[in-house]
Amino acid sequence: MTPHLSDLEQSFLVALQTLALTRRPRTMYCYCAVSRRFLSYLRTHFPELLRPDQLRRRPHLLGWLRFLGEQQPPLANKTRSNLLICLRRLLEDLTAAGFTLAPFLIRPQDFPTLPHYLPRPLSLQDDQKLQQELRATDDWPANALLLTRATGIRIGECIDLTQDCLRQLGPDQWALHAPLGKLHCERLLPADPDVRHFVARLLTLRALAPAEVPARSQAFLLPRRGSRHVLYMTLLHACRQAAQRAGCSSAVTPHRLRHTYASEMVRLGVSLPVLMRLLGHHDIHMTLRYVHVTPQDLQREFQAARQLAAPRYPLPLPVLPSSAGPDLPGVRQALAATIHLLEMYRRRLTEPAIRHKLSRLGNRLAAVSSQLDQLLSAQK
């Protein structure tokens, strides 16, 4: 224990030291930042608070919530929610460690409503323009972004790719080894000729300037001249500049390439369970955030399903009633059956021109049927 710390500060230090045994350094950085922020608030506004058992929901925790809501510039709901999640975990660890804390210091209603995130894929035109611009640029950031687009890996996984990331699984079967990433899992992704070309191009560009690559980054595919954050900012800047030169209609980030890859895979017929494995997700609900379904996709899938269902479930053909005879009611019944049969046949077709002609013919028959109804009404 540090002598000059209060009992409350020492208890938080114990909780952080215990949590560090099972958490990654980057995760512990967030917990330490939340702890410092919370304790600093308490020292400033409640200097008399020295022990964990003195901590109360009112005024301490509610004052902290009010303090977060009054920050300028305002904190995003996601940021405030993350701060509360980290603080709640620390308070739970203090209770588990034997410290006496008041119950229900943080409650479910304290968490702000999170925004509903929508898929953010690039449009087909922007995607094509950006890829053409990146291929024309042909430097290592451009090839790294093309590799991200072709595989759907996270930008952090692209940064951590090794030089031997390509694995041959069999004749004409190659895979890209995605390293341990955000969810602490690694996976093998199918590598087509484009993916192999981007990896080979990155290796060639490294070989052309070996003096510029520090010794500590020799194992990685992308050259590291600084921290991972510096490399990420380099790729982010290259992506934005390429999108601007290509004339894209919206701002582009490396993560939007991952959304574009996911939406493209669904359009090509990849199922959601397979897409979840390709993206490295543990939950199918997360995968759904990446998939954008357009009205054109709905029409295409619906028509394809109708074509598949037609041979299996043939539509019953209307049968003329046995009582139909050579009179106006019989003609009316026969015409109604013909209109129904024509509409069922039109729905099975896929050619727009023929469907339009049959629709116009059906409208004419419907007009004749309406005139027959008027004659029948007049006879009555």
CATH top level class name of the largest domain: Mainly Alpha
Low-confidence stretches: none
The residue fraction in helices comes out at 55-70%
Order of helices and strands: HHHHHHHEEEHHHHHHHH
Distance between the termini: 103 Å
- Total strands: the figure is 3
Q: How much of the polypeptide forms β-strand, as a percent range?
A: under 5%
CATH topology assignment of the largest domain: hpI Integrase, Chain A
Instruction: State the helix count.
Output: 15
**Class from helix and strand fractions:** mainly alpha
Sheet bearing the most strands, described? 3 strands, antiparallel
Strand order of the largest sheet: 1-2-3
Count of domain modules:
3
Determine the CATH superfamily of the largest domain: Intergrase catalytic core
Rg from C-alpha positions?
Answer: 32 Å
Query: Which second-level CATH architecture of the largest domain applies?
Result: Orthogonal Bundle
- Mean model confidence by pLDDT: 86
